[in-house]
Amino acid sequence: MIGEKNGFVRHIEFSDIGAILPTVEPWDGNLIGVDFFITAIGFEDRVCAIAKELARSLPERSTSVAVLGNYESNLEDNACNDAEMRESLKQFCSEIITVSADSPAEIQRVVHNAITRLAATRDFVRTTFDISGSSSTFILSVMAALNAKAQHISLNIVYAEPDSYEPTKQDFDSNLDELIKQGLSEGDDQSFAEQGVAEVDVNELYPGYSVENRPDHVFAIPSLRTSRLLRCLAHNSDQALASPEESIFWILSEPPAPKMRWRLDLQRRIIRAQISILMGREPSESTLHPLTSQNSAEASTRDYRKILEILLKQIDQRTGSNLSIAHMGSKLQGIGVALALHTRGEVKVLHARPKRFNAAKYSHGVGTLWRIEFRDLAKLLRELGRIGQLELQSKLETSREIRPTL
């Protein structure tokens, strides 16, 4: 037993660790060297931007291995970027391995094999993951594989944001009711972003675990459309659909630019309407279910740290529930989700692919390039794993600020 004079036991908080998390910084496209490069081919204008930058800045064939993810949906649209992507990769990569971006097990196998092979001839495998064209499934699956091999790698996450998204501010100002209606529907060829739901499943790299007779709780990170999210909820259990006010915690996406905050307003309106529908009410201003600090939070689309903090806190508050997550938020948010899931293996990941993305109504152009530099990923993961643990702190230590260093 520890006496009062000797010290006390305290919980390790996110604030004790958060200072060591690297920030998301603007990036000029230059890297000192890359051994292993991971990317995916999609239909957006920005998909090839980073591969082109590295083809310009890196020595010819200086990168040993590139992994290129291919999607089952939008094959013709994606093919428009295929030749340009492969030409760029050939300039700085010695070997290109193609992988199904929709298969977590295949992604894990290919990434693990590449790192094992490269680690045999170097101390650290300098790994760069370009998430610009990555789906949530591809991001979470690649990060699961990288986290498992963290002791062998240094990691750069790089990202090209688009110049603009659909829908536009003009759409919001002139046709708000129609946008909300589209957000609640499965969509068609004229809808923004996507249409339909192809399949729903559990990501096998994040199976979580369930205990019989425990309540179910879902962390929902929605997009501006709810059809895939609803299918995930239905696939998981009836509880979330029957009692969304008690069984779902919503994490909404806050754009970093004030001029884009109307997108958060639109998302909030769509989600409140969807909750009302699930509760058997016709959505109107008087019947919309409130989103409060008890059932929701907001996280920047460009800062993985905030969503990481939110998830760790919410997961630890619900240790008596069977937990699942449906992530349909931003790509950089996906990095925070992956880090949270690595330290909280009890959470199951639900995912759903649309039947088709509407390529012409998704995003346009190439905007700012961004980078997160994880110099020692293994140590960072160990520090994150300490959050929520008890620590014996001596009286001497209470006079010092706990500041872990990498």
Would you mind describing this structure in some detail?
By secondary structure, the chain is of the alpha/beta class. 36% of the residues lie in helices and 24% in strands. The protein is built from 14 helices and 19 strands. The chain has helices at residues 14-17, 49-57, 75-92, 104-119, 136-148, 169-174, 176-183, 227-236, 239-242, 244-247, 262-278, 304-316, 331-343, 377-386, and strands at 7-11, 25-26, 36-41, 63-70, 93-100, 125-130, 153-160, 164-165, 194-195, 199-202, 216-221, 248-254, 296-300, 322-327, 348-353, 356-357, 363-364, 369-374, 390-394. It has a seven-stranded mixed sheet, sandwiched between helices. Strand 6, helix 5 and strand 7 form a beta-alpha-beta unit. Helix 2 (49-57) packs parallel to helix 3 and helix 12 (304-316) packs parallel to helix 13 (331-343). It is globular.
Tally of separate helices? 14
In the sheet with the most strands, the strands line up as 2-18-7-6-3-4-5
Structural Rg: 22 Å
- The count of strands amounts to 19
As a percent range, the share of strand residues is 15-25%
Q: What characterizes the major β-sheet? A: 7 strands, mixed
Structural class: alpha/beta
Mean pLDDT: 90
Note the overall shape: globular
Uncertain stretches = 398-406
